[in-house]
Design goal:
The structure holds 2 protein chains of 2 kinds.
Chain A: E1 2-13, E2 16-27, E3 31-35, H1 42-49, E4 57-62, E5 75-78, H2 90-100, H3 105-118, H4 134-146, E6 152-156, H5 164-179, E7 183-188, H6 191-197, E8 200-205, E9 208-214, H7 215-219, E10 225-230, E11 240-250, E12 253-260, H8 266-275, E13 280-286, H9 290-298, H10 300-304
Parallel strand pairs in A: 3-7, 3-8, 5-6, 6-7
Antiparallel strand pairs in A: 1-2, 1-4, 8-9, 10-12, 10-13, 11-12
Helix pairs in contact in A: 2-3, 2-4
Chain B: H1 2-16, H2 19-42, E1 48-54, H3 59-86, H4 107-115, H5 118-129, E2 144-147, H6 151-154, H7 158-169, E3 181-185, E4 196-199, H8 205-226, H9 231-238, H10 256-293, H11 297-301, H12 306-338, H13 342-347, H14 357-384, H15 388-414, H16 420-427, H17 432-439, H18 446-475, H19 484-495
Parallel strand pairs in B: 1-2, 1-3
Antiparallel strand pairs in B: 3-4
Classes of the chains: A alpha/beta, B mainly alpha.
């Protein structure tokens, strides 16, 4: 079953097309990355999944059901723009959101205390939010999202504005939730986080899907590059698109930057070298980064947006 | 419904945790309890001191003194009658004028009162029947005290009296008691109508009227005598006056004082509605703006629908408002108990409207419907504003639109006026709750109560629907403060499914 299924969804705000015929599915139990520049339609799609806004056309299902507040007990949500009631204590805040997600007051309080302890805020449970530092308040907000041990955790740009310590804490929480069987969807435009955490990715640009698949599949979208130390160029080998010398020759050995045709595995080229008895001193495959894939797919201008 | 209650409880807790809530809650009872004390310090209940220099032989001065005494006795009778009525002491002397209430006391009544021994004899009779818990009666003080004319003043010629009188009106010695009025009636009074009065400050109209009345009668008598009428006939003609038979209707039938007492509770309900609405509405608005400016709306909206959020806030605010009224009422009850029923005796007639079930239902209905209808406006403002500063821009005109007519309305009701303004306010839903509540004590036709009540119900239902749309469409909207066109567009958008 898909934790989230989006079928031909379009969302229009007056004259602005925010999401355009979008279709994708988030498999149950996976960590799913939602990538795209600003205005790509990430937040709009997540808001539709939460029924905060409704699609102009198309259909969404969340945990097998239509979007709605009745799903709240199974969902945790951390929005991009974060804030809390300044005059409420940390614990009361967690209990309040726990209760809105269908928990009893006692359960929410018990789980809230466990979370605050885990986040190093055990001594601040009774402090009001306005007495906490920004980093502490961010931890409290994270606790409000996971207090109900959700089946689906939706995080909208969760790393933005976090200090490195809290970024690590959040990564740990995402891994912990995933290990407990929670499906995690998070939107980001910081590719390193997606590379580290995501099992599957969706790339959006101007409300349209550019790519959906695993990290390896994403990297395979760009031709692989090799750094080879050989005495002769490899242009003649099958699957090689280009082979350019890098730096000076030393004792007849030259470093070559080899670009392969899309979809050609580096192993095929190595095999061809062996068959042709081409001597090699080095053969390194340089895999495309997600950042490269992102730039390639959405274009530099879109990526900067 | 559960989410609405959770939101309402949070809203209630947030507002009641505010320092301003507790300050406001305490200010009203404190002001009401300090009011009478302040009034005691501020009020001047001493008699005005009067010197009459009567060059005509003293008859005019005696007439004036008698007139003051008659007026004082009438006031004494009225005060005593209210005391007897409040403590149900009529059996002390059922035939006495002070045992019949809410009426004008005639010269005959005053004569009977004097003949039977005045206030001293009346109190002696009352003491025989009054219980030990009944407080003592405090006799009304005379309005004027006649001071014997100082010889050094009476010896002076008329044209020097004015300057000499200043020493009595504004004595140089701080310890000397000043005189309030110096009245000179010249020897040729009658031939000449001129009488001179020097006052310490602006002369009281009641003083001038009484003096003028007495001297006018005398002038007329002298004129008739000069026209050949016998002194006896002239004297008789000067005191001819219509024997006004004044009958006051029983309470509830139009007697102003009685009606005013009956209106206390409805007027108080109207005033409390206004007070608590303005306060709790402002706090709710502050909370809504905080949710927007603190960017926590999206988190909340992931768990509750905009409608649940709106109704929860509304319910929380109504809870706050009703708690305030409950607290104020409790303060009143405690004060009543603490003063051994004195206040309770005072307000018992004011509770008369509560004997009619229809009035009770109407009061509760208009109070609650009014609360919802007006609170919704505050909610709409909060939903559209990103900051309190922005909210103030909408709030001021709304507050003025509500408060100004209601202020005029309450004054009009207290003054017993029910003109076209009151009628208009009755039928405009924004002011209906205040107006109908205020009018309940004075009497309002049943068809008007039902008609305006239905109109208010329709208005409240429509505003709930429209504001829910506006609220939904405004919550996550950003940008400039919306103008009227944008507000209408949001109401339309909020009504769409998507």
């Amino acid at each position: 079953m898909s934790a989230l299924s989006v079928e031909n969804v379009t969302k229009r705000f007056d004259r602005t097309l925010a999401v355009d015929e979008l279709t994708f599915a988030v498999p149950d139990g996976q960590v799913f990355g939602f990538l795209g520049g600003n205005g790509a339609g990430k937040t709009t799609t997540l808001r539709m999944a939460l029924d905060i806004i409704r699609p102009t056309a198309g259909r969404l299902t969340v945990l097998g059901r239509a979007p709605g507040r009745e799903n709240a007990p199974d969902i945790g949500f951390l929005p991009e723009e974060r804030g809390l009631y300044r005059n409420m204590t940390a614990l009361d805040t967690i209990v309040y959101f726990g209760r809105l997600k269908g928990m009893t007051s006692n359960d929410a309080r018990t789980e809230g205390l466990v979370l605050l302890d885990r986040f190093g805020l055990g001594d601040n449970a009774r402090s009001t939010i306005d007495k906490l530092s920004k980093g502490m308040a961010q931890k409290v907000q994270l606790a409000t999202a996971v207090v109900n041990r959700p089946k689906l955790l939706i995080l909208d740009e969760p790393f933005s504005g976090l200090d490195p310590v809290n970024q690590n804490l959040l990564e740990d929480e995402i891994r912990r939730a995933s290990a407990n069987g929670t499906t995690v969807i998070f939107s980001t435009h910081v590719m390193q986080h997606a590379e580290r955490l995501c099992e599957k990715l969706l790339l959006l640009a101007r409300g349209r899907k550019k790519f959906e698949g695993t990290l390896d599949e994403a990297r395979a979208q760009l031709p692989a590059r090799l750094s080879v130390m050989a005495k002769q160029p490899l242009n003649a080998l099958p699957g090689v698109k280009s082979c350019e010398p890098v730096g000076p020759t030393r004792d007849g050995w030259q470093e070559w930057d080899v670009q392969l045709e899309p979809g050609v595995p580096a192993g095929d080229v190595l095999e061809a070298c062996t068959e042709r008895s081409i001597p090699l001193r080095r053969f390194d495959e340089r895999r495309a980064s997600l950042h490269d894939v992102f730039l390639q797919m959405v274009g530099p201008a879109e990526a900067r947006a | 419904m559960k989410n609405i209650l959770i939101v309402a409880a949070r809203e209630f807790r947030q507002i009641t945790a505010m320092r301003s809530f507790w300050m406001t809650l305490l200010i009203l009872p404190l002001a009401l309890s300090l009011g009478p004390i302040a009034q005691r310090f501020l009020s001047d209940d001493s008699s005005d001191r009067v010197i009459v220099i009567d060059r005509t032989g003293g008859a005019e001065a005696r007439s004036i003194e008698q007139r003051f005494a008659a007026d004082d006795d009438r006031r004494q009778l009225q005060k005593l009658s209210r005391f007897v009525q409040r403590h149900k002491l009529e059996k002390a002397d059922p035939a006495a004028p002070w045992a019949s209430h809410d009426r004008w006391y005639t010269a005959a009544d005053i004569a009977q009162f004097r003949a039977s021994g005045g206030v001293k004899a009346a109190l002696a009779r009352i003491d025989r029947v009054k219980s030990s818990e009944t407080p003592d009666y405090e006799p009304a003080k005379p309005s004027y005290e006649m001071i014997a004319t100082p010889p050094e003043l009476s010896k002076l010629p008329d044209d020097r009296i004015g300057n000499a009188a200043q020493a009595y009106l504004k004595p140089a010695d701080d310890k000397a008691k000043p005189v309030d009025y110096v009245l000179l009636i010249p020897r040729d009074f009658g031939a000449s109508p001129v009488v001179q009065l020097w006052a310490r400050s602006e002369a009281r109209p009641s003083f001038v009227t009484a003096v003028q009345d007495v001297l006018t009668r005398d002038l007329r008598s002298r004129f008739l005598e000069s026209q050949g009428v016998s002194p006896q006939a002239a004297q008789a003609a000067s005191v001819i006056a219509p024997a006004l038979s004044i009958s006051s209707p029983p309470p509830g039938g139009g007697a102003r004082e009685a009606m005013l007492v009956r209106s206390i509770l409805p007027l108080a309900a109207s005033y409390l509605l206004m007070m608590s609405l303005m306060l709790s509405g402002s706090w709710m608005l502050q909370g809504t703006v905080e949710e927007r400016s603190n960017k926590l709306l999206e988190t909340v909206l992931a768990c509750v629908s905009p409608e649940e959020l709106m109704y929860g806030k509304l319910l929380g605010t109504i809870g706050v408002g009703l708690s305030m009224i409950l607290a104020w009422t409790a303060c009143g009850a405690i004060a009543g108990y603490a003063t051994h029923g004195v206040i309770a005796d005072l307000i018992r007639p004011a509770l008369a409207p509560l004997t009619a079930p229809g009035t009770i239902i109407a009061m509760i209905y208009f109070f609650l419907a009014g609360y919802i209808a007006i609170s919704v406006l505050f909610l709409a403002i909060g939903g559209m504003s990103d900051s309190m500063r922005e909210a103030q821009g909408y709030l001021m005109p709304v507050m003025l639109a509500i408060l100004m007519p209601v202020t005029f309305l309450l004054q009009a009701i207290v003054a017993g006026r029910t003109g076209i303004l009151v009628e208009v306010l009755t039928w405009v839903p924004l002011w209906t709750p205040f107006t109908v509540l205020a009018r309940l004590g004075m009497g309002i036709p049943t068809w008007e109560v039902i008609g305006s009540g239905l109109l208010l119900a329709v208005f409240t239902a429509a505003s709930l629907v429209l504001v829910a749309r506006l609220f939904r469409a405004s919550l996550l909207a950003q940008g400039q403060r919306p103008n009227l066109a944008e507000v209408i567009a949001r109401v339309r958008r909020g009504g769409e499914a998507g």
